[in-house]
Amino acid sequence: MTTGTPPPTARRRSRARTFVPLAVAAWAVLEIWLLILVADAAGGLAVVILLAAGIVLGAAVIKSAGRRAFRNLTETLQRMPGQPGADGSSPAAPESGRGNGFLMLGGLLIMIPGLISDVAGLLLLVPPVRTALSRYAERSLDRRMRTAAPGGFSDAFQQARIHRPDGKVVQGEVIRDEPPRDGPGPDDEPRPPLTR
Questions:
Q1: pTM for this structure?
Q2: CA neighbor of 102 nearest in space, from 50, 142, 138, 139
């Protein structure tokens, strides 16, 4: 007997959910293998010193990038219209603030024990590499935001940016002008509590 509805189809598992765990496992095995090779060649103490130096260097990079990001945020907020000493123009992002996220990611990769992650983190400390990755990520995000379906996250972000550009909140009160009803209606019955 058919009801006219198509049979339910199983959702396909995305490629990322299939390959990301495999890639992380392969990366971990490769990192451990390289650390064992270095320990055989240079000794266990050299590996421990290398890992400790990576943690210290990574923490210093993250701290520096965080301070720079906070300084850029403070400068931007001080240039906002309405602030004392502001020129009234819209604040532009400082050029020194570009790539702070990739700089922090580089520090994090250096802190993770392993030689491959250290090399990747050191590459992210090079300004041309960081700039190229930043441009690529910006173009990719812009392309995805343009092709996103209406009603999604990008649409909500666009509406918030259009309707509340200055972030001001207007206080108010909603007053309903409905005529009184003659008898009890369906809305007068007690309602169950709202739960999630």
A1: 0.61
A2: 138
